[in-house]
Design the sequence.
């Protein structure tokens, strides 16, 4: 998959743990881990909206596309 | 609070999946059906071996005609043109029914486990409609063979055919097979959607 999830980088910049993010966003740690490791097949807009609100960023900061 | 029989029944009817649900009650019924069809299959095999053997022996005049068996039994055991297709279909039919019950048991086990769209359920349903098609084709072939062989080899005898095979073309049966086929495709699509949703965050 060419879509890269940069959650690790943003969490490090904000000094947040996955556990804290999970509590604030309302998504389980297991699902956030699936997203972080690039195993997710799809992301709901509601999840993306919650992540952007909590991390105070844009969707483009979390997701990027690797052109081949 | 004690559970009255009415409350227990309405609870079961209200819960389609999981423990103490309608599916678990049906699972119990399927266990009983499995035992009954297993016994029927065993009896069908024994009857087929004995019946076909007797009818062929009678054709060669090695044994006399069956005296006072019931009408259908006398017709089947005394005429190999009827015994061979009729009893062969009985074996195929009971074996097919047993296979269907076994597949249904696995489907309902997944319902009780709250996994109605388990990946294997689409395969089980497909197997059920294929088995139904095989049973129906066997029934039609048995009917055609029974009448055809009798017309060729026993046309001078006055024979009343057993009614167990029904009519050669039964639209109700074919419609039911078609319904199961559609349900199998619906389940297959449901399984695909479930798989897609599994890794959606």
Sequence:
């Amino acid at each position: 998959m060419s879509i890269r999830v940069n959650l690790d980088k943003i969490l490090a910049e904000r000094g947040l743990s996955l556990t804290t993010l999970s509590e604030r966003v309302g998504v389980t740690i297991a699902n956030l881990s699936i997203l972080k490791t690039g195993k997710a097949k799809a992301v709901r807009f509601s999840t993306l909206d919650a992540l952007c609100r909590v991390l105070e960023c844009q969707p483009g900061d979390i997701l990027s596309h690797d052109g081949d | 609070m004690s559970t009255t029989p009415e409350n227990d029944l309405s609870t079961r009817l209200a819960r389609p999946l999981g423990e103490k649900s309608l599916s678990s009650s049906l699972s119990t019924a399927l266990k009983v059906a499995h035992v009954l069809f297993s016994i029927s299959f065993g009896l069908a095999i024994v009857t087929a071996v004995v019946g076909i053997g007797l009818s062929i022996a009678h054709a060669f005049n090695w044994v006399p005609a069956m005296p006072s068996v019931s009408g259908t039994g006398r017709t089947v055991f005394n005429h190999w043109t009827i015994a061979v297709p009729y009893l062969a279909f009985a074996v195929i039919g009971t074996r097919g029914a047993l296979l269907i019950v076994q597949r249904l048991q696995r489907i309902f086990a997944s319902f009780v486990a709250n996994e109605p769209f388990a990946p294997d359920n689409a395969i089980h349903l497909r197997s059920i409609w294929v088995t139904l098609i095989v049973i129906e084709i066997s029934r039609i072939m048995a009917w055609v063979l029974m009448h055809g062989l009798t017309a060729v080899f026993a046309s001078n005898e006055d024979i009343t055919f057993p009614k167990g095979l029904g009519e050669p073309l039964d639209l109700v049966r074919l419609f039911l097979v078609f319904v199961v086929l559609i349900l199998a495709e619906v389940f297959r699509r449901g399984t695909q959607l479930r798989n897609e949703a599994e890794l959606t965050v």
In short: Chain A has five helices and two strands.
